[in-house]
Amino acid sequence: MIKTPFVAVDGIIKIFDKDENFKGIVLIERKNPPYGLALPGGFVDIGETTEEALIREMKEETDLDVIITKLHGVYSKPDRDPRFHTVSIVYICKAYGEPKGKDDAKKASIYKLEEIPFEKLVFDHGKILKDFLER
Amino acid sequence: MIKTPFVAVDGIIKIFDKDENFKGIVLIERKNPPYGLALPGGFVDIGETTEEALIREMKEETDLDVIITKLHGVYSKPDRDPRFHTVSIVYICKAYGEPKGKDDAKKASIYKLEEIPFEKLVFDHGKILKDFLER
């Protein structure tokens, strides 16, 4: 029987206002363990593409309708999720308006790129965002 | 209980000779269904990164020691694998020498980019290689 890690998607959502001014990215406060701040994301369902999963999860957790702009990377270290081995496929996407925390997210807020609280980020989301800032 | 698609890796192996001349890419003839030509690849094991899985699978199927140069893309259409839903993470990599078909590969051969037999490729490997040629 085939056994592989779980597959998840995470989104780096770039927020713009209606005049196309960049406002920052979205982080959520997690309702479930591990507690802390995280990129919005979740598991891919059987029967949906990773892009569909990303759009669904961003809507569920932040109420935003995102447009995917780029594949950022794949993060797969076995210990990146303290619960079990999860491979995360990370996309960069774009959205307009204010995020609202829903579902697994107690809160969803916009953070300026210069004010990301790295010490509060769970999983390897600090590493993902450092890679994003460097490119 | 969490259920997600399986995670696999596939490699576009660029072969160079000892004078760094590009010779083509590697395709394998599959030993198991679906029968046909394919990129070398396989499932990610729990406890290994996708990069480790790629290096292991390339060695198992082609006997080549590859160096990963780039993430090519993520392919996740539910019907891309006729057996079940598999998300494939595709890397571009580099290797020297002659491939030898092993394990799941009945044969492993070098194909010039201008001579890829698209009609014989299984899964969505034709699409993956068309994306590769276009970029």
From TrEMBL, chains A, B:
Which GO molecular-function terms appear in the entry? hydrolase activity
Keyword Hydrolase set for record: yes
The protein depicted here goes by the name: 8-oxo-dGTP diphosphatase
- Which keywords accompany this UniProt record? Hydrolase
Matching PROSITE patterns: NUDIX, NUDIX_BOX
Translocase is among the record's keywords: no
Quote the InterPro entries the UniProt record gives: Nudix_hydrolase, NUDIX_hydrolase-like_dom_sf, NUDIX_hydrolase_CS, NUDIX_hydrolase_dom
Name the family the entry cites. Answer: Belongs to the Nudix hydrolase family.
Gene3D superfamilies for this protein: Nucleoside Triphosphate Pyrophosphohydrolase
| Ranges where the Nudix hydrolase domain occurs | 5-134
Tell me what organism the protein belongs to: Venenivibrio stagnispumantis
